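REQUEST FORM: STRUCTURE PREDICTION
Request ID: SP-0412
Submitted by: Lab K.M.
Chain count: 1
Length (residues): 414
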Amino acid sequence: MVMRISRPMKRAGTKNEQFKKRVPTALLPLLRGKKLSIYLPETTAPDSATYMVTVTLGDMITFSLGAPVSRLAKVRHAAALGHVEAFLDAAQRGPEDLSHMDITSLLGEIHKALLAQYEADPPARHKIVVDDGVEEWSELSEWQDMITDAEEGIRTLTPQGRAAAVARVSRIVDLDAFLSARALVLSEKSYRDLVEGLPATLRRVAETLAQRSHGNYATDPYAAQYPQWKAKTTAARRSTDEYVKTFDDLFDRWKAADKRAASTISTWRGYLARFTKFVGHDDPHRVERADALRWKDALIAEGLKKISTTYLAALNTLYRFGLRDSETTGINRNPFEGVKAPQKAVAGTRRLPFTRPEVALILSAARKETLAHLRWIPWLQAQTGSRVAEIAQLWAADSFPWVSVRSLVARAFS
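STATUS: Completed
RESULT:
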């Protein structure tokens, strides 16, 4: 079982959060030195564009999340963790044998990815001056040379020759990074088959890009020849089954992780029930900031007090918990972040302190009481400045920093 890191890490010398995870010792001989590529979201939007981070594997997988402490850093960390765990799970299962159709569809993925990267602005042809005059040069001609060299390496039918072939075309496509980005660890046979099919695929890409460079953007004649790649179900996808589905699910996870008094749990569950009824659904993932703001306004309209420290604080705490453990809860934003209900107290409505005569009256009345709680609590409050709830839950064996409860009782009734 792969261990999780629940949150981004700090690194000295930078404000950006870091992703850091140890590679299991048993996998180091297989993975050390290989490249791992991960696609991270550029924003927190569900349909955000992505960018690729590539790292060389060693004892630790470490890279920058490209953002300081923020929701974006947490979202990127969750995306990275899901992919890293899927990749490590694939490595733990062992190298995978793919069918001929799977290999062909993977080559199609390479074809499609390279066209998407280059066809909008294909490698152009340039005129360069040499000793004998002017010659035409294109990066695509460099590609052709690399592909030819790769074919020669593959014809040796040796692992060394295939490794040299992969290295030669790495400027066009980094095969290890391509496979790791899809959480694939191939068997020796499948890797060999993929490498042997690579030059022909790259020649097709170069041919299509050459047409694009001359303004021909007709349908790519090779795209339909590749079967659709069907990714295997990975741990990253299976983990979505663990995500919270309802508000009660989120609340129960928070309750188990963050021990609170029974009164707080009961009260907050009531706040949550009111909000669920207000938004009209039971899905915490669908809540937007606009929903939080509308609820705040509705509570103010009801004339309720201390909204920020009660209703809003409860929901804010639940979402902050969900965001903190986003890898397992699936919560990737906190719609209650920064939502407050400033409510100034009306002049003359605050509680006033007791006057000395009022204090004397209360304590005198307490001395006459025969029930223990009515007799002792007011005097212990006067001795300590504590609230009723704080005194009422004390035991005789409890003590304040400076004196025991028994001593206070003795002093109060001496």
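NOTES: The radius of gyration is 33 Å.
Reviewed by: T.R.
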